[in-house]
Amino acid sequence: MRRLAWGRCREHPRTAGEVIPDDQGAPASHPCQTTEVAALNLPGLPFSLSPEGDPPPGCRILNGVLTLTGAAGTDLFIDPAGPAGPLPDAGRFVGLAPAADFTLHAQVSVEFASMYDAGVLLLWAGPAHWAKLCLEYSPQLVPTAVSVVTRTTSDDCNSFEVSEASLWLRITRSGGAWAFHASTDAKWWRLLRYFTLGQDGPVKVGFLAQSPTGAGCTARFAHIAFGTGAPANLRDGS
């Protein structure tokens, strides 16, 4: 699979998806510029996203949809049985969200090919304190809602299978706690995890695509939306 460089993914301020000329005045051949990204601005987010991790994914924004292509062997996981080698890494786009309660959701679609391929919504407080909410290809090669909460080691949980390669995922900040929800229709949200990251300090949120066992994975994040406040009841489907 061809690996793309970090892309400065821009849309026309009036017409979504229109190609913007490059710095030399010639039209870009692709809606994703292949210069290094300093910050990524998405229509649904009130804060910018910056690239972190390695190797970097391919990146594109078209009509408000963020597409990331993770390279072969990319993952975030700290095995509770003890790492067998160097810890894996994955390029990602993350940004510092406001400290107040909020929700962040997106419709995640994945081009599955290999076990553990996934599109991910991510919380990142540091290399030993992070959490990810995934639409992931299970060992049975079935799209599955998966969550991983890492406080020095990773606590991995497979929640439910879905019949399609698409699922709505939502992160909620509620006071000092976090919640992960998933939905098949963006109307009724199933609570998957309610937790803390076990440390104080700023937490970044963002997106990644992973392919721990495969040659690479492409994930699309559509209908990205940020909302202030948290649901009054995290367990009633709202």
DSSP strand count: 16
Order of helices and strands: EEEEEEEEEEEEEEEE
| Number of helical elements | 0
Amino-to-carboxy terminus distance: 40 Å
> What name does CATH use for the topology?
Jelly Rolls
Largest sheet geometry: 7 strands, antiparallel
What kind of assembly state do the chains in view correspond to?
A: single chain
Mean pLDDT metric:
87
Secondary-structure blueprint of this entry?
Blueprint: E1 8-9, E2 32-33, E3 50-52, E4 58-62, E5 65-71, E6 92-96, E7 102-111, E8 118-126, E9 129-137, E10 143-151, E11 153-161, E12 166-174, E13 177-183, E14 190-195, E15 204-210, E16 216-228
Antiparallel strand pairs: 1-2, 3-6, 4-5, 5-16, 6-15, 7-12, 7-16, 8-9, 8-15, 9-10, 10-11, 12-13, 13-14
What does this structure look like?
The protein has 238 residues and is mainly β. The protein has a single domain (37-228), classed as Jelly Rolls. It is built from no helices and 16 strands. Strands 3-6-15-8-9-10-11 form a seven-stranded antiparallel beta sheet, with no helix packed on it. A hairpin with a 1-residue loop joins strand 10 and strand 11. The protein starts with 7 loop residues before the first strand and ends in a 10-residue tail after the last strand. Mean pLDDT is 87; it is low at 1-8 and 10-35.
